[in-house]
């Protein structure tokens, strides 16, 4: 029982110490999504979209702040988005969420590295890892596009394939703790905006998903400016706070 209590205390700690801009972006996103929810017909899809987008924004902001609570947040939001993707017939959007679960959410939950002062372990690409990441993205794009063309009735197979390839690669890069992930997340956000806008225009998706993708883009901009992934001063402060927290936790154990 004490172990469970300690774990929830740890998760609560992971929601603290974020840059103030992260909290502001969440408040903005939550208010906007709530406005969309109450100003349109409230359906099952709308409610799931509201839950998924709200938790999803918390997830990306947690990653931005180098906090491992993103594992649970990502898992819950991914399940919501899988349902929305099915309703919108964006099958690779569903596959993208499954990829997040397998390549990022579950590994984060199981990883000791992510769950113990992860900010101290951030690293950057070498020339070799750049080549591997770009080659993997291109290969996943063509394979997934071919699968969608030949085995599904997806209306936009090659459009769907692009964010899937980028996001799957980004998930792996993120789990491996490279800050270069945000180049992939930015590209993914741009393609997601296009995808969900087109889906909304054809009547296959709620506008909440388009708005959510736009918020993700804002988060990516924050990542390049104030996030510990790129801001060395904020990273050093976070590492110091996390080390202090872990020391106090160890003394109380």
Task: Describe this entry's structure for a reader.
This protein is mainly α. The protein has one domain (2-252). The chain contains ten helices and no strands. The chain has helices at 2-14, 20-38, 44-64, 70-88, 91-110, 127-151, 157-175, 181-201, 207-223, 232-252. The protein is globular.
Q: Briefly, what is this?
A:
This protein has one domain (2-252).
Topology (elements, then pairings):
Blueprint (H helix, E strand, L loop, with lengths): L1 H13 L5 H19 L5 H21 L5 H19 L2 H20 L16 H25 L5 H19 L5 H21 L5 H17 L8 H21 L1
Helix pairs in contact: 2-3, 2-9, 3-4, 3-9, 4-5, 5-7, 6-7, 7-8, 8-9
The percentage helix is over 70%
The strand count comes to 0
> Structural class given helices, strands, pairing?
mainly alpha
Envelope shape: globular
Largest sheet: none
> What's the average pLDDT?
88
Query: What is the straight-line distance between the termini?
Result: 14 Å
Proportion in β-strands: under 5%
Number of domains: 1
Radius of gyration: 18 Å
Helix/strand order: HHHHHHHHHH
* Tally of alpha and pi helices: 10
Q: What are the low-pLDDT stretches, counting only 5+ consecutive residues below 50?
A: none
